[in-house]
């Protein structure tokens, strides 16, 4: 264990945490067994000999193909494919879900902070305008009906919520992937290790994509919406990619501020559901994909799911603001572990010195486990 690479250690920690997922472990065993069978079962030595590129060979010579092995994922209740088919699964306790606060805000101290914050304000204003999203304080003692509240822009309709959430999640999945790509290419180019950033960034990208997949079970967008996503993706990915090449810190700060807005948006959504202003989602059961991804209870509702999504957004807020405080060759403090939501939910991020302390503590923990 002394020289165990961090990602492997993390995999072990995560595997231990989800050891109850017996089905997936037996599936992994099944893959390993079939892998062994493919490489040793052949009775003919001829099959072990390598072939020229243009000569035929039996299936599996270049490694396993999905068609060579039995399906390893199980379908639950005839629903979507379940079990360990994504990267890191975030799972939260009840206390963590409730711990998230919207007040965790990074003061814009430097010019680049101010620029990133300004960009987010402008984008938010523009998107609110275009999507028709509106949230105003309901006057105290109001006797307006839900229909009146929605008409006057105090609360949003289900379709406005879905448009907003679905569109934003298609955008939110871009920065992590673009940043991971750049760091990956950089590592290949200079032939040096990456300081542990790539996996955290990929996890964020996948986590955002899972948000999109989850809400897609409630509404399937139409052709106009999809065209807008296509155009936005083409523009935003390229701008973010180029900006990250020039100044990664400002990009992480920008994402940190974007995630502050995401936490606020989901908090308003939660409060609308809990105050009876969003009756459509009050008792709606959570989709299977969400129960599987966040390990929710079998009777979980969409409200439980949104609490989990909000916690993810608080993680992105914390991680990106922390990374924005680091130099690009600093070790990623979250490569091995992350603080729980009682920290990530209430604090905007780690200062550089705090990250260094956290890395030191993580190393001590690893040494203790050896
Ligand atoms: Fe998200
Ligand atoms: Fe996010």
From TrEMBL:
One cellular-component annotation, GO: respiratory chain complex
One Gene Ontology term from the biological process aspect of the record: alternative respiration
Keyword field: Electron transport, Iron, Membrane, Metal-binding, Mitochondrion, Mitochondrion inner membrane, Oxidoreductase, Respiratory chain, Transit peptide, Transmembrane, Transmembrane helix, Transport
Record localization: Mitochondrion inner membrane
InterPro entries noted in UniProt: AOX, AOX_sf
Cofactor: Fe cation
Domain of life: Eukaryota
Keyword Aminoacyl-tRNA synthetase on entry: no
UniProt entry tagged with the keyword Cell inner membrane: no
EC number: 1.-.-.-
Main localization (coarse): mitochondrion
Entry's transmembrane regions: 223-246
Single GO MF descriptor: alternative oxidase activity
UniProt-listed Gene3D superfamilies: Alternative oxidase
Pfam families linked: AOX
Entry's cofactor comment: Binds 2 iron ions per subunit.
Record-stated family: Belongs to the alternative oxidase family.
PANTHER family documented for this protein: ALTERNATIVE OXIDASE
Physiological role: Catalyzes cyanide-resistant oxygen consumption. May increase respiration when the cytochrome respiratory pathway is restricted, or in response to low temperatures.
Name listed for the protein in its UniProt record: Alternative oxidase
């Amino acid at each position: 264990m002394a020289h165990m690479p961090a990602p492997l250690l993390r995999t072990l920690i995560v595997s231990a945490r989800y050891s109850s997922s017996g089905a997936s472990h037996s599936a992994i065993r099944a893959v390993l067994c079939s892998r062994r069978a493919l490489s040793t079962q052949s009775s003919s030595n001829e099959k072990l000999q390598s072939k020229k590129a243009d000569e035929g060979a039996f299936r599996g010579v270049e490694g396993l193909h999905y068609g060579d092995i039995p399906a390893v994922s199980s379908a639950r209740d005839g629903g979507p494919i379940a079990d360990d088919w994504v990267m890191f699964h975030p799972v939260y306790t009840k206390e963590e879900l409730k711990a998230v606060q919207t007040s965790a805000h990074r003061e814009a101290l430097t010019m680049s902070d101010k620029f990133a914050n300004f960009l987010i304000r402008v984008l938010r204003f523009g998107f609110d305008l275009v999507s028709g999203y509106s949230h105003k304080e309901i006057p105290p003692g109001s006797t307006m009906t839900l229909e009146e509240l929605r008409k006057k822009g105090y609360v949003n309709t289900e379709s406005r919520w879905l448009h907003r959430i679905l569109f934003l999640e298609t955008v939110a999945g871009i920065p992590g992937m673009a940043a991971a790509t750049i760091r990956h290419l950089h590592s290949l180019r200079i032939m040096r290790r990456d300081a542990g950033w790539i996996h955290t960034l990929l996890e964020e990208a996948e986590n955002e994509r899972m948000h999109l997949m989850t809400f897609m079970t409630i509404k399937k967008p139409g052709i106009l919406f999809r065209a807008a996503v296509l155009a936005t993706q083409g523009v935003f990915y390229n701008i973010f990619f180029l900006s990250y090449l020039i100044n990664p810190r400002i990009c992480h700060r920008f994402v940190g501020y974007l995630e502050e807005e995401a936490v606020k948006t989901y908090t308003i959504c939660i409060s609308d559901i809990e105050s009876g202003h969003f009756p459509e989602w009050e008792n709606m059961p959570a989709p299977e994909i969400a129960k599987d991804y966040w390990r929710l209870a079998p009777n979980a509702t969409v409200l439980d799911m949104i609490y989990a999504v909000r916690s993810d957004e608080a993680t992105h807020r914390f991680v990106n603001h922390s990374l924005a405080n680091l130099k690009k060759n600093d070790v990623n403090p979250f490569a091995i572990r992350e603080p729980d939501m009682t920290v990530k939910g209430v604090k905007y991020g780690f200062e550089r010195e705090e990250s260094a302390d956290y890395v030191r503590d993580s190393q001590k923990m690893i040494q203790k486990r050896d």
